[in-house]
Amino acid sequence: MDLAKTLIRSVARAFYETRHVLVIDALMIHSALPNEDLAILLGMQQKDLRKLCAKLREDRLLAVHSRQETREGLVRPINKDYYYIDFHATIDAIKYRVYHLTKRIQDAYKPSAEKKDYYCPRCTAQWTQLEVLDHVGPMGFLCHRCDAPLEREEPSADASSGNENLVKLMSQLDPILKLLQQIDSAIIPKNDFETALSLQVPVQRDEAVNPTRQTVPIIEQISRPAAVKGITQTTLQPLEIDLTTG
Fold first, then answer.
1. Does the pLDDT at position 78 exceed 90?
2. Strands annotated E in the chain
3. Which of 4, 51, 70, 139 is surrounded by the most beta carbons within 10 Å?
4. Which has the higher per-residue pLDDT, 35 or 73?
């Protein structure tokens, strides 16, 4: 589970705003939190918290479980939202996004055609290194068109910049890729809502400022169909068929 937590925290810090990181860190510490408690930890209104968590929920970095609960003095039950992290779903989402991100980076800096590193100063013909390997003279590679010695073209500033950007981006992804490789060979326990709630670390409140309002979940009872009056149980008798020929 530590590998999963490290991965999710790394992704949050690499690609999300500080306030999103705080949400992830709070759930890592407390396991599962109702909307009200998470809002108190972050010092924000519950409505604003829902908007903040919508992005993380959309990206599957956190999950939301709603259940009906009741509180003393209330006639009607209330819907209470709990935030937690489903490790399996989140890891799958990270794998999907990292794969497409690395592919997009590689495609962006991939040359559209094979680069021709050698050019002829006499006839201006250009050649790839593979094309001139079989035509070598005392001065080096020779032009297939006019036999003049070829000169090597220096890489352009744009190409160098593109390669540097590619290296930089891949270096930023490297720790995440290594964690994903380790996770593939490890057993990550499930962390569904019931599991996360059982591991919950309660939020310490200042009861004078934010008093605790205890609620209890409503246990749904499965109703069994009642017997219908006027219908008595009958014993099924075998159906006898007499086939006669006329």
1. no
2. 32-34, 63-70, 78-84, 118-119, 126-127, 136-137, 140-141, 151-152, 216-217
3. 4
4. 35
Task: Count the neighbouring beta carbons within 10 Å of the beta carbon of residue 137.
Answer: 12
Tokens coding 63: 């999950």
The β-bridge partners of 66 are 81
Contact 87, 95 (CB under 8 A): no
Asked if 43 contacts 8 with a C-beta cutoff of 8 angstroms, the reply is no
CA distance 38 to 45: 10
Helix (H, G, I), strand (E, B), or coil: what is residue 149? strand
3-state secondary structure of 11: helix
Name residue, tokens 């160098």: 160
pLDDT in tens, 94-107: 999 988 887 877 77
Number of residues that make up the chain: 246
Residues 6+ apart with CB under 8 A from 53: 23, 38, 62, 64, 83
- 189: DSSP letter: P
Mean of the per-residue pLDDT values for the chain?
Answer: 82
- Cβ–Cβ under 8 Å, residues 76 and 144: no
- Which of 69-78, 132-141, 154-163 has the weakest average pLDDT? 154-163
For residues 103 and 173, is the Cβ–Cβ distance under 8 A?
A: no
The runs of H, that is alpha helices, within 112-185 are 129-132, 157-184
156, 162 Cβ separation under 8 angstroms? no
